[in-house]
Amino acid sequence: PRQLTRLGARPIGWISDGSAVVCHTMRGGSSAYYAVDVTSGDERPVLTFLPDDALKVALAPDSHAVAYLRPHDGHRDLWVASADGAASRQLAEGLAVRTMAWSPDGRRLAFDTGGVAGSSTYLVGASGEGEPVRVYGGIGSDPSWSPDGARLALLGMHAAVLVNADGSEARRLHVSQADKAALDWSRASGALAITSVQG
Predict the structure, then answer these.
(1) What CA–CA distance (Å, rounded) separates 113 from 120?
(2) Which of 54, 120, 140, 149 has the fewest Cβ atoms within 10 angstroms?
(3) Which of 162, 158, 90, 151 is nearest to 126 (CA)?
(4) 58: which residues sit within 8 A by CB, 6+ positions away?
(5) What gap in Å lies between CA 78 and CA 169, rounded to an integer?
Protein backbone atom coordinates (compact mmCIF):
# COMPACT_ATOMS: atom_id res chain seq x y z
CA PRO A 1 0.00 0.00 0.00
CA ARG A 2 1.08 3.57 -0.67
CA GLN A 3 -0.40 6.94 0.15
CA LEU A 4 -1.63 8.86 -2.89
CA THR A 5 -3.02 12.02 -1.31
CA ARG A 6 -1.77 14.29 1.45
CA LEU A 7 -5.16 15.64 2.48
CA GLY A 8 -8.35 13.81 3.39
CA ALA A 9 -10.00 12.53 0.23
CA ARG A 10 -12.97 10.34 -0.55
CA PRO A 11 -12.66 8.10 -3.64
CA ILE A 12 -15.68 8.20 -5.96
CA GLY A 13 -14.54 6.05 -8.88
CA TRP A 14 -11.78 4.96 -11.23
CA ILE A 15 -10.69 6.28 -14.59
CA SER A 16 -11.73 3.53 -17.01
CA ASP A 17 -8.19 2.37 -17.84
CA GLY A 18 -7.33 2.02 -14.14
CA SER A 19 -4.57 4.62 -14.29
CA ALA A 20 -6.11 7.04 -11.81
CA VAL A 21 -8.65 7.20 -9.02
CA VAL A 22 -11.01 10.16 -8.78
CA CYS A 23 -11.24 11.69 -5.31
CA HIS A 24 -13.34 14.34 -3.65
CA THR A 25 -11.79 16.69 -1.10
CA MET A 26 -12.32 20.11 0.46
CA ARG A 27 -9.64 22.64 -0.37
CA GLY A 28 -9.74 26.29 0.54
CA GLY A 29 -13.27 25.81 1.83
CA SER A 30 -14.48 24.63 -1.57
CA SER A 31 -15.40 21.22 -2.89
CA ALA A 32 -12.84 19.87 -5.39
CA TYR A 33 -12.36 16.71 -7.47
CA TYR A 34 -9.03 15.30 -8.65
CA ALA A 35 -7.87 12.36 -10.71
CA VAL A 36 -4.86 10.98 -8.83
CA ASP A 37 -2.40 8.91 -10.89
CA VAL A 38 -1.87 5.60 -9.08
CA THR A 39 1.79 5.35 -10.11
CA SER A 40 3.10 8.88 -9.64
CA GLY A 41 0.49 10.39 -7.32
CA ASP A 42 0.18 13.35 -9.67
CA GLU A 43 -3.16 15.14 -9.49
CA ARG A 44 -5.23 16.87 -12.15
CA PRO A 45 -8.54 18.66 -11.60
CA VAL A 46 -11.63 16.91 -12.98
CA LEU A 47 -15.40 17.45 -12.74
CA THR A 48 -14.74 21.17 -12.26
CA PHE A 49 -18.26 21.98 -13.45
CA LEU A 50 -19.95 20.34 -10.46
CA PRO A 51 -21.66 22.80 -8.10
CA ASP A 52 -20.37 23.14 -4.55
CA ASP A 53 -23.60 21.66 -3.21
CA ALA A 54 -23.25 18.44 -5.25
CA LEU A 55 -23.68 15.34 -3.08
CA LYS A 56 -23.11 11.59 -3.49
CA VAL A 57 -21.08 11.93 -6.68
CA ALA A 58 -20.52 8.68 -8.64
CA LEU A 59 -18.64 8.01 -11.87
CA ALA A 60 -20.11 5.75 -14.53
CA PRO A 61 -18.21 2.48 -15.09
CA ASP A 62 -16.55 3.91 -18.22
CA SER A 63 -15.78 7.18 -16.34
CA HIS A 64 -17.33 9.19 -19.19
CA ALA A 65 -20.35 10.33 -17.18
CA VAL A 66 -21.07 11.34 -13.62
CA ALA A 67 -24.20 11.16 -11.46
CA TYR A 68 -24.76 13.44 -8.51
CA LEU A 69 -27.40 14.70 -6.11
CA ARG A 70 -28.36 18.34 -5.56
CA PRO A 71 -30.38 19.69 -2.64
CA HIS A 72 -33.67 21.29 -3.67
CA ASP A 73 -36.66 22.35 -1.53
CA GLY A 74 -35.70 20.07 1.35
CA HIS A 75 -34.89 16.98 -0.70
CA ARG A 76 -32.25 15.77 -3.16
CA ASP A 77 -32.71 15.59 -6.93
CA LEU A 78 -30.72 13.20 -9.15
CA TRP A 79 -28.65 14.65 -11.99
CA VAL A 80 -26.30 13.18 -14.57
CA ALA A 81 -23.79 14.78 -16.94
CA SER A 82 -20.90 13.94 -19.20
CA ALA A 83 -17.58 13.96 -17.37
CA ASP A 84 -16.69 17.20 -19.17
CA GLY A 85 -19.88 18.88 -17.96
CA ALA A 86 -21.81 18.66 -21.23
CA ALA A 87 -25.40 17.44 -21.49
CA SER A 88 -26.26 17.91 -17.83
CA ARG A 89 -29.77 16.62 -17.18
CA GLN A 90 -32.07 15.92 -14.26
CA LEU A 91 -33.25 12.32 -13.90
CA ALA A 92 -35.42 12.50 -10.78
CA GLU A 93 -37.17 15.43 -9.15
CA GLY A 94 -39.04 15.58 -5.86
CA LEU A 95 -38.30 11.98 -4.84
CA ALA A 96 -35.96 12.65 -1.89
CA VAL A 97 -33.12 10.58 -3.38
CA ARG A 98 -30.65 9.23 -0.81
CA THR A 99 -28.11 7.08 -2.68
CA MET A 100 -27.61 5.88 -6.24
CA ALA A 101 -25.55 3.35 -8.20
CA TRP A 102 -24.69 2.92 -11.88
CA SER A 103 -25.59 -0.30 -13.66
CA PRO A 104 -22.56 -2.29 -14.88
CA ASP A 105 -23.22 -1.23 -18.50
CA GLY A 106 -23.63 2.44 -17.53
CA ARG A 107 -27.07 2.70 -19.11
CA ARG A 108 -29.17 2.93 -15.94
CA LEU A 109 -29.06 4.21 -12.41
CA ALA A 110 -30.67 2.62 -9.38
CA PHE A 111 -31.56 4.96 -6.54
CA ASP A 112 -33.38 4.77 -3.24
CA THR A 113 -35.67 7.34 -1.65
CA GLY A 114 -36.91 8.14 1.83
CA GLY A 115 -39.06 10.67 3.61
CA VAL A 116 -42.71 11.04 4.54
CA ALA A 117 -43.80 9.06 1.47
CA GLY A 118 -41.83 6.02 2.63
CA SER A 119 -38.87 4.18 1.15
CA SER A 120 -38.65 2.86 -2.40
CA THR A 121 -36.02 1.86 -4.95
CA TYR A 122 -36.21 3.04 -8.56
CA LEU A 123 -34.43 2.54 -11.87
CA VAL A 124 -34.04 5.28 -14.45
CA GLY A 125 -32.26 5.48 -17.80
CA ALA A 126 -29.07 7.55 -17.76
CA SER A 127 -30.00 9.11 -21.10
CA GLY A 128 -32.85 11.01 -19.46
CA GLU A 129 -35.56 9.37 -21.52
CA GLY A 130 -38.51 7.99 -19.58
CA GLU A 131 -39.64 8.33 -15.99
CA PRO A 132 -38.12 6.48 -13.01
CA VAL A 133 -39.64 3.02 -12.51
CA ARG A 134 -40.13 1.67 -8.99
CA VAL A 135 -38.69 -1.83 -8.61
CA TYR A 136 -39.00 -2.25 -4.84
CA GLY A 137 -41.48 -0.59 -2.49
CA GLY A 138 -40.07 -1.67 0.86
CA ILE A 139 -37.31 -0.31 3.07
CA GLY A 140 -34.01 -0.49 1.22
CA SER A 141 -30.95 1.67 0.71
CA ASP A 142 -27.51 1.66 -0.92
CA PRO A 143 -28.44 -0.28 -4.08
CA SER A 144 -25.70 -2.56 -5.37
CA TRP A 145 -25.88 -4.16 -8.85
CA SER A 146 -24.96 -7.75 -9.57
CA PRO A 147 -22.13 -7.96 -12.13
CA ASP A 148 -24.53 -9.07 -14.88
CA GLY A 149 -26.96 -6.22 -14.13
CA ALA A 150 -29.82 -8.65 -13.53
CA ARG A 151 -30.30 -8.10 -9.79
CA LEU A 152 -30.03 -5.45 -7.10
CA ALA A 153 -29.03 -5.92 -3.48
CA LEU A 154 -30.33 -3.42 -0.92
CA LEU A 155 -29.84 -2.85 2.79
CA GLY A 156 -33.22 -3.18 4.49
CA MET A 157 -34.51 -3.33 8.05
CA HIS A 158 -32.53 -6.17 9.69
CA ALA A 159 -32.12 -7.69 6.24
CA ALA A 160 -30.43 -7.52 2.89
CA VAL A 161 -32.94 -7.52 0.06
CA LEU A 162 -32.36 -9.15 -3.33
CA VAL A 163 -34.66 -8.07 -6.15
CA ASN A 164 -34.55 -8.64 -9.90
CA ALA A 165 -33.89 -5.50 -11.92
CA ASP A 166 -37.38 -5.80 -13.41
CA GLY A 167 -38.86 -5.59 -9.92
CA SER A 168 -39.78 -9.27 -9.59
CA GLU A 169 -38.93 -11.84 -6.92
CA ALA A 170 -37.87 -9.66 -4.00
CA ARG A 171 -36.21 -11.81 -1.30
CA ARG A 172 -35.10 -10.83 2.22
CA LEU A 173 -31.94 -12.24 3.79
CA HIS A 174 -31.77 -11.76 7.56
CA VAL A 175 -28.77 -9.68 8.61
CA SER A 176 -28.21 -8.52 12.18
CA GLN A 177 -27.37 -4.82 12.35
CA ALA A 178 -28.21 -4.39 8.66
CA ASP A 179 -28.11 -0.62 9.08
CA LYS A 180 -24.35 -1.01 9.68
CA ALA A 181 -23.74 -3.53 6.91
CA ALA A 182 -22.04 -3.33 3.51
CA LEU A 183 -22.73 -5.25 0.31
CA ASP A 184 -20.26 -6.44 -2.31
CA TRP A 185 -20.71 -8.73 -5.32
CA SER A 186 -18.13 -11.19 -6.61
CA ARG A 187 -17.46 -10.47 -10.28
CA ALA A 188 -16.21 -14.02 -10.78
CA SER A 189 -19.04 -16.03 -9.22
CA GLY A 190 -21.91 -13.57 -8.83
CA ALA A 191 -22.07 -14.36 -5.09
CA LEU A 192 -23.06 -11.59 -2.68
CA ALA A 193 -20.94 -10.84 0.38
CA ILE A 194 -22.59 -9.09 3.33
CA THR A 195 -20.40 -7.54 6.00
CA SER A 196 -22.19 -6.58 9.22
CA VAL A 197 -20.80 -4.62 12.15
CA GLN A 198 -21.84 -6.17 15.45
CA GLY A 199 -22.34 -4.20 18.66
Answers:
(1) 5
(2) 149
(3) 90
(4) 12, 13, 66, 67, 68, 100, 101, 102
(5) 26
